[in-house]
Amino acid sequence: MSKSLQAIRGMNDILPEQTPLWRYFEGTVARLLDNYGYKQIRMPIVEFTELFKRSIGEVTDIVEKEMYTFEDRNGDSLTLRPEGTAACVRAVLEHGLTGAGQPQKLWYIGPMFRHERPQKGRYRQFHQIGLEVFNIDGPDIDAELIVLTWRLWGLLGIRDAVKLELNSLGTSESRGRYKVALVEYLSAHLDKLDEDSQRRLKTNPLRVLDTKNADTQAVLINAPKMADYLDDESRIHFEGLKARLEAAGIPFVINTKLVRGLDYYSKTVFEWVTDKLGAQGTVCAGGRYDGLVEQMGGKPTTGVGFAMGIERLILLLETLEQVPEEIARQVDVYLCAFGEAAELAALALSEKVRDQLPNLRLQVNAGAGSFKSQFKKADKSGALYALILGEDELAQQVIGFKPLRGQGEQQNIAFDALAAHLATCVVQG
């Protein structure tokens, strides 16, 4: 027998019972970003491979090990996007969105792709919401990005489960001086470093700082500190950011080992982390990348942004039981009709109700069926109320109204009073 068809490992279906929570989360974020003045941009999921080599860095784990790269029929090397910032910068440059120093506050949503070992909260196709801001160079915009995520955590009911970690990487010049000192120190303790850190020491030494290896972490205790090598500009910027967060009442901790995994970061870097999801603790992360636009062929342009992992935040909402009850319920009212004449009347009546109550989730039974089978469908739908329309009700121009989830007797409601009654029971209640 032929092998049964199934999804690629690490690329998952999002099933109908899961999508209401995704839509709730995405809608909450979209409304928040509208309120803060961010505009949505949509980029292709496939880009030229060179884009990511130039932006992320050829010696990063993403480019070396994780990208889905292939040749198309023209012989061009293409890559499924592993992250969104590079693609957004490419779009901004291509369409001249930051010309004449014009500020841009953008956001995007969509799937990203990395060939990693799949585990809970970490998949090969994963989804992100990202924000990118261009041509605003002060710490005020860094603070705004963090403040709006803090507001989002409040809207979602997860503030108590996340912690903000901050660091500053300085400019490329100060970071270069720090790299020299770090390499010199680690080289003197080479035999105590794990194999992966020894490799990174030659290619991307800052990545040694976020190792999970206990022996290497012990060596890092006495390693040079990034803060001691910061230039004055970066130090003033970082102090300005901290002052604004303190003014907004947002708690944070300084993590001197926080470097992020991409080469383009400078000055501010931050992560929102949780201890509720096991090893996959980062739910939102980002920072400043003032040299990236110029690195990709544009004029000097400041930039800062972040990305949040939708799968991990959905998992966090479920773990903390912060899924609103109305999200789990996809139907408010289920209309049962018995007989062809009642079915015709139910169709017309339901559309009139929808005209008057456009937010009402009203499902009309399809496929006929007995009284018992239709009521079973109504109960399974999760609806709060059932509407009953048969020959007797049709003759009297009324419809039966029966609560399914609580107390209350069945009653008859006149056709022309149905919308007002439902507004009181469902839409407003």
TrEMBL record:
PROSITE patterns given in the database record: AA_TRNA_LIGASE_II
InterPro entries: aa-tRNA-synth_II (IPR006195), aa-tRNA-synth_II/BPL/LPL (IPR045864), Anticodon-bd (IPR004154), Anticodon-bd_dom_sf (IPR036621), His-tRNA-ligase (IPR015807), HisRS-like_core (IPR041715), HisRS/HisZ (IPR004516), HisRS_anticodon (IPR033656)
Catalytic activity: tRNA(His) + L-histidine + ATP = L-histidyl-tRNA(His) + AMP + diphosphate + H(+)
Keyword Protein biosynthesis: yes
Residues that bind L-histidine: 83-85, 114, 128, 132, 260, 264-265
SUPFAM superfamilies per UniProt: Class II aaRS ABD-related, Class II aaRS and biotin synthetases
Localization terms from the record: Cytoplasm
Single GO MF descriptor: histidine-tRNA ligase activity
EC annotation from Swiss-Prot or TrEMBL: 6.1.1.21
Residue ranges occupied by any Aminoacyl-transfer RNA synthetases class-II family profile domain in the UniProt entry: 1-358
Main location: cytoplasm
Swiss-Prot/TrEMBL GO biological process terms: histidyl-tRNA aminoacylation
GO cellular component terms attached to this protein's record: cytoplasm
Keyword set, alphabetical order: Aminoacyl-tRNA synthetase, ATP-binding, Cytoplasm, Ligase, Nucleotide-binding, Protein biosynthesis
Family, similarity comment: Belongs to the class-II aminoacyl-tRNA synthetase family.
Subunit structure: Homodimer.
Protein name: Histidine--tRNA ligase
Source organism: Pseudomonas azotoformans
